[in-house]
Design a protein that fits this description.
47% helix, 10-stranded mixed β-sheet, alpha/beta, 10 strands, single chain, 387 residues
Length: 387
């Protein structure tokens, strides 16, 4: 396959990282590409820096526009792309030398939406010893349902065949990658996951995914394009089972704050719970029953749901944290502290559990319910592993 690959990179005050980004494309083992930068109203040296590279290499292009946000910048790039095979890339990340070659192989085998694992680097470009990988239970057969529960897509690690059969949500902002992925999966694009780390994802305070409040708002804007009542028959028609569809839509409704629908779909899912339901789905069902009951202020029922979840499989840190919260609401502070400590030990980077430990040890005691998995569903939830 000698197809041209169009690489689209929105830029906004990215001069600090652009050289690193651009150099990673110059060492690709697949040379047939165009690199389209869309400057979205930068006030630093970004435009000047890109212009210098454009003058030296005809594969590079620059579009300069007034500031309008990531979604509109990507849309501008798609309009200018000469190829239907598109790779997305953030301005502060780096591509591995084989990024394009492995992506092209996937396209050649019929893939239309591609996601890869990625390694994390610090602000200076040094590996921090972690990579992000897709959970083992997710594959082409269930990626649509799983994506309706949480966002597994990171723009820099995405590639797709753009058939122009949908429009981007102009207000999706930092979750434009999520918007693209959901629309493609709804349109039955063939999904492929590449387990190799094809990019290095830079972690720093100013990158888009660090702004949780904005990301949550943008993700909700993406989800508001879909109606639960319309999704139910559509997903059944696509061949998904009753339990999986009902559980998915209960979680989907919880994210959107539609509690009546969430309760209705949880009741529907309960009809189909049996020994054939995978362990991870049983855990998920019990967990979100607990979340639903909490939001309905049925705290005793919520407590028993989380206790049930704790017995299903390996103890989940979010389950332990939420049991601690409910123990604290009952005034059982010693028990609450025990569960918060367990959650922190299960995941030493679990900020919510650590914060709750501080709260439970404060004078007077303060309590807070942290919706950890609800938060994660609106962000990227690849498993973090050491490398």
């Amino acid at each position: 396959m000698n197809e041209l690959i169009s690489i689209i990179t929105p830029v906004y005050n990215g001069a600090k990282f652009l050289k690193d980004n651009i150099q990673s494309w110059f060492v690709q083992t697949y040379p047939s590409f165009e690199l389209i930068f869309i400057d979205d109203g930068s006030t630093d040296e970004s435009v000047k820096m890109i212009q210098e590279y454009v003058a030296k290499d005809p594969r590079l292009k620059l579009i300069v526009r007034q500031h309008g946000g990531i979604s509109q910048a990507i849309a501008s790039g798609l309009e200018q792309a000469q190829s239907q095979y598109v790779v997305l890339m953030d301005q502060d990340d780096r591509a591995s030398p084989h990024r394009l070659m492995e992506t092209v192989h996937a396209f050649k085998n019929g893939s239309e939406l591609i996601m890869s694992s990625y390694e994390m680097i610090d602000v200076n470009g040094n590996p921090i010893g972690k990579k992000m990988v897709l959970p083992l239970h997710i594959d082409e057969s269930n990626i649509l349902l799983e994506s309706l529960k949480r966002n597994y897509f990171l723009g820099s690690a995405m590639a797709f065949r753009y058939k122009k059969d949908f429009n981007l949500n102009p207000i999706s902002g930092g979750t434009t990658d999520y918007d693209i992925a959901l629309k493609m999966l709804m349109n039955d694009y063939k999904f492929t996951y590449i387990s190799s780390c094809l990019i290095e994802y830079r972690v720093h305070q100013s990158n888009t995914s660090a702004n949780y409040t904005a990301i949550r708002r943008n993700a909700l804007d993406v989800l508001e394009q879909y109606n639960e009542l319309e999704l139910y028959p559509l997903l059944l028609e696509k061949g998904y089972g009753n339990f999986d569809v009902a559980l998915t839509l209960s979680i989907f409704s919880l994210f959107k704050g539609h509690l009546r629908l969430a309760g209705m779909y949880l009741q529907e899912a309960e009809k189909y719970v049996d020994d054939h339901v995978p362990v991870h789905s049983q855990l998920e069902f019990a967990f979100y029953q607990g979340v639903y009951c909490y939001k309905m202020e049925k705290y005793e029922d919520s407590f028993h749901c989380f206790l049930a979840a704790s017995r299903i499989d390996r103890l989940n840190p979010a389950v332990a944290n939420n049991i601690g919260v409910l123990e604290s609401l009952n005034g059982c502070y010693d028990e609450a502290e025990k569960w918060f400590r367990i959650a922190s030990e299960l995941n030493n980077e679990y900020i919510d559990a650590k914060r709750n430990l501080d709260l439970i040890n404060s004078k007077p005691v303060k309590t807070v319910f942290t919706e950890r998995l609800l938060r994660d569903t609106l962000l990227h939830t690849f498993n973090i592993t050491g490398i």
